[in-house]
Design a protein that fits this description.
Blueprint: H1 2-25, H2 45-50, E1 57-59, E2 67-74, E3 80-87, E4 90-91, E5 104-111, E6 114-119, E7 123-126, E8 134-140, E9 147-149, E10 152-153, E11 155-159
Parallel strand pairs: 1-9, 4-5
Antiparallel strand pairs: 2-3, 3-7, 5-6, 5-8, 8-11, 9-10
C-alpha cells in the first residue's frame, strides 16, 4: 500500500510540473490571463497586438490628464487598507480586457516591485507588509497597457511604516 502511495505522490509531482511547463510554454500565466490565445484578446492579431502589456499609452499633460494618489491605513483587526484615489480616471471592471476608452481602466498593485493584484475600486486590504515595503499603484487601460503622461508612468508609491512588521 505504501508503495502505491509513493508512486501516486511521484506522479503528482512530475505531472504537476509538466502541466506548469506546458501552460507557461503556451502563454498561460498565474494571473488567469492567457496571453497566447487571440480569442481572449478579442480574436484578431491586430486586437491582440493592442493588448500588449509593454505597449504604454502616452497622454499629454494638462488639467484633464489622469493621476493617482495612494495612502496606507492600519486596519483595526490586522494588516493594512490601501486607499487609491484616481483623478480624471474611473475604474471600469466591466471593460477589463476590452477595447480602451478614454479615462477608464483598472490599476495594478505592486509590493516591492512584485505584482500583487489588479484593482477595480478605491480600496484594497493587504494582509501584511514588511517594514519599509514599497507599495506602488499604476493606472492601466482596459487592455492592460500602462498609462503615461509625457513619458512618465501614472503611478503613486507609499512606503509601509517601520512598525508594520508582523502586521
Amino acid at each position: 500500500m505504501s508503495r502505491s502511495l509513493a508512486l501516486f505522490a511521484i506522479g503528482l509531482v512530475f505531472g504537476g510540473g509538466a502541466g506548469f511547463v506546458t501552460a507557461a510554454g503556451n502563454g498561460i500565466t498565474f494571473d488567469g490571463h492567457d496571453h497566447g490565445d487571440p480569442a481572449h484578446h478579442g480574436g484578431s492579431n491586430a486586437e491582440m497586438a493592442a493588448h500588449d502589456h509593454s505597449q504604454a499609452v502616452s497622454l499629454a499633460a494638462g488639467p484633464d490628464a489622469p493621476g493617482v494618489a495612494v495612502q496606507l491605513h492600519k486596519d483595526p483587526m490586522a494588516g493594512w487598507n490601501l486607499q487609491v484615489t484616481p483623478q480624471n480616471f474611473r475604474f471600469a471592471p466591466q471593460n477589463a480586457s476590452a477595447a480602451d476608452a478614454d479615462g477608464e481602466g483598472h490599476a495594478h498593485v505592486y509590493i516591492n516591485g512584485e505584482k500583487l493584484a489588479r484593482l477595480y475600486a478605491g480600496w484594497m486590504h493587504i494582509a501584511s507588509l514588511p517594514a519599509g515595503a514599497e507599495v506602488k499603484v499604476s493606472l492601466n487601460t482596459n487592455s492592460h497597457s500602462p498609462l503615461m503622461i509625457d513619458g512618465v508612468p501614472v503611478e503613486a508609491k507609499v512606503t509601509a511604516p517601520a512598525d508594520s512588521e508582523g502586521s
